[in-house]
Amino acid sequence: MVFGLANPDRFMRFTRPLMPVVWAAAVGLLLAGTWLSFTAPEDYQQLDTVRIMFVHVPAAWLGLAAYVALGVSSFFALVFRHPLADAAARAAALPGAVFTALALATGSLWGKPMWGAWWVWDARLTSVVVLFLFYVAYMALRAAIDDEAKAARAAAVLGLVGLVNLPIVKFSVDWWNTLHQPASLLRAEGPSMTAAHLTPLLVMGLAYMMLFTALWLTDIRTEVRRRRVLTMRARAAQEA
């Protein structure tokens, strides 16, 4: 089923009825998550600052998840030279960069009252900056090369190289002595957060995932249409 959707025509037919559902789910979850975030009680240590986490943590999750989508799509585009995989990699770059930038910005807003500094160059923060730079470099490389086929191959290689940074981001707090707090959810002894704070965090995480999915599919569909138009123009020019 999944490999069948690699055909652009099948992909377009399959995703057409899904688009309004995915967008509606994203908007609904965002509204619910925002309401839960503002009505959640203060944290006994972080006070009202805890509400920043409901934006920061899901943004960081999606920054990583979007790069996984970019890297896996780049692999299929480079190895199998499938245009839809290249379109998927290209479509993941901008939303991923935005989510990563949001994670960095909200992390700084949280860090000032909690750490007393807007920014510290510890392993987690530095590796997330590197992740953001990989997104920027991927988009810049595609824009810098006029030949789309060469741009796609070069960007795919860069996208695969960037995958090396993902485990560094994930495990940096475990591998090095870092100011950033360790994982609060995926722990052997269970989440360290109370249900009052865990619920809005998970709802916002799901909302961000649905929003990325909606943006990603929309961008892929737009790219497929763009390439079809270019192909039609090229054929018309040849016939003329």
From TrEMBL:
Membrane topology: Multi-pass membrane protein
Gene Ontology CC terms, in alphabetical order: plasma membrane
Family, similarity comment: Belongs to the CcmC/CycZ/HelC family.
Keyword Cell inner membrane: yes
Residues annotated as transmembrane: 21-40, 60-80, 92-111, 123-141, 153-173, 193-218
Gene Ontology BP terms: cytochrome complex assembly
Summary of the function given for this chain in its UniProt record: Required for the export of heme to the periplasm for the biogenesis of c-type cytochromes.
Protein's UniProt name: Heme exporter protein C
Keywords, in A-Z order: Cell inner membrane, Cell membrane, Cytochrome c-type biogenesis, Lyase, Membrane, Transmembrane, Transmembrane helix, Transport
Short name of one Pfam family: Cytochrom_C_asm
Primary localization class, coarse: membrane
Gene: ccmC
Subcellular location: Cell inner membrane; Membrane
Keyword Membrane appears in the UniProt entry: yes
